[in-house]
Amino acid sequence: MPKMKTHSGTKKRFRKTAKGKLRGRRAYSSHILEKKSPKRKRRMARPTEVARPDRKRVRTLLAGRGR
User: Fold this and answer.
1) Which residues, 6+ apart, have CB-to-CB distance to 26 below 8 Å?
2) With 60 as the cut, is the pLDDT of residue 67 above it?
3) Stretch (H or E) spanning 24
4) What letter would DSSP give residue 38?
5) Most buried among 8, 20, 33, 62, by the most CB within 10 A?
6) Conformation bin of residue 6: beta by default, left when phi > 0, alpha when psi is -120 to 50
7) Domain ranges of the chain
8) Is-contact 17 59, C-beta < 8 A?
9) Cα–Cα distances in angstroms (integers) from residue 10 to residues 2, 18, 32, 38, 61, in the given order
10) pLDDT on residue 15
11) CATH, domain range 8-65
């Protein structure tokens, strides 16, 4: 069986923390910002942990990295 390659779009968008959690950019943070409160926009600027239902899929796409 050939080795599985890392999905290049996924490796640009997500990263693993030292403890193995997955961090990614928050949704809804790049447009229609005028109506969002400053507090909400500041929160969206920080990366967030990937949601539980999506973790398996992201891990599979990052699997080729050997980490």
Assistant:
1) 43, 44, 46, 47, 48
2) no
3) strand 22-24
4) H
5) 62
6) beta
7) 8-65
8) no
9) 20, 18, 24, 29, 7
10) 92
11) 4.10.410.60
Q: Give, for 23, the enclosing helix (H) or strand (E).
A: strand 22-24
What's the pLDDT at 55? 94
Segment 17-56, tens digit of pLDDT: 999 999 999 999 999 999 999 999 999 999 999 999 999 9
Query: Which letter, b or e, does each residue of 1-31 get, where b requires 16 or more Cβ atoms within 10 Å of its Cβ?
Result: eeeeeebeebeeebeeeeeeebebeeeeeee
- Nearest alpha-carbon partner for 44 in 31, 57, 53, 55: 31
